[in-house]
């Protein structure tokens, strides 16, 4: 077994000399930061800042509700969790519940925080909050937001690993959330 080592060094914290906004909109801010490394090297770093986002895993009977949609940036059809950006002042859990209902027509019966993560920490501040609901009720035959999903499907959790391996599920929020639920289920040996 390898030994654990503690390196005593000077601080590796970068110094920020300034940051200027390049582009700013309701959903994103791009800026260029003037940064200096601890060794004195100085350069400009692009920075992306996005509003908080919330996604929901609806899990029922060993299956999860996923949306199939086209993502134009990568020109690919993918399966992913319902979710989106929070409005100014909106509570994260309320955002998660609103987004899943708008995009799927299903309402979570409960919302439990699952995990919060940053998908791209070297360049972006894009806080993502994932919630899980073990149970859901259908409140609309079709989603109120017709721009989101081509198809909705309850997918058995045991099929998820092969869908990830096949490149059908590629979004970081979807992969992180699905793996967190599968890990949670394996640790509790629950029949949720």
Task: Describe the model.
- With 192 residues, the protein is α+β, with helices and mostly antiparallel strands.
- It has two domains: 15-49, no CATH class; 53-188, Nucleoside Triphosphate Pyrophosphohydrolase.
- The protein has three helices and 13 strands.
- The strands form three sheets. Strands 4, 5, 6, 7, 9, 11 and 13 form a seven-stranded mixed beta sheet that branches.
- The longest helix is centred in the C-terminal third of the chain and has 17 residues, at 172-188.
Provide a compact summary of the structure.
The chain has 192 residues and is an alpha+beta fold. The chain has helices spanning 92-104, 160-165, 172-188, and strands at 15-24, 29-36, 42-49, 53-60, 63-71, 76-80, 83-85, 106-108, 112-117, 124-125, 128-134, 136-138, 151-156. It folds into two domains: 15-49, no CATH class; 53-188, Nucleoside Triphosphate Pyrophosphohydrolase, CATH 3.90.79.10.
